[in-house]
Amino acid sequence: MGRNNDKNIKKHNDKLHKTQAKAKQAEMLRKEKRKEIVKKFNEDNQDANN
Fold first, then answer.
1. DSSP letters along 1-50, please?
2. pLDDT for res 2
3. Greatest CA separation found in the chain?
4. 14, 18, 30, 50: least buried by Cβ within 10 Å?
5. 5-39 per-residue burial string, b: 16 or more CB within 10 A, e: under 16
6. Which is more confidently placed, 45 or 49?
7. What pTM was estimated for this model as a whole?
8. CA distances from 23 to 1, 10, 17 (A)
9. Per-residue pLDDT tens digits for 7-47
10. Structural domain harbouring 41
11. Number of domains in the chain
């Protein structure tokens, strides 16, 4: 019995893909928050200049 049987490979891949999806979701969330912060900063900055 080898360690690299189909069941173990599937379990490993599922775990890996779950982790990758979580990281991708976190990155997208950070980008959206950054976009909101920049937008708010630009609005506040524009108000201060006028």
1. --S--HHHHHHHHHHHHHHHHHHHHHHHHHHHHHHHHHHHHHHHHHHHH-
2. 67
3. 75
4. 50
5. eeeeeeeeeeeeeeeeeeeeeeeeeeeeeeeeeee
6. 45
7. 0.67
8. 34, 20, 10
9. 999 999 999 999 999 999 999 999 999 999 999 999 988 87
10. 1-50
11. 1
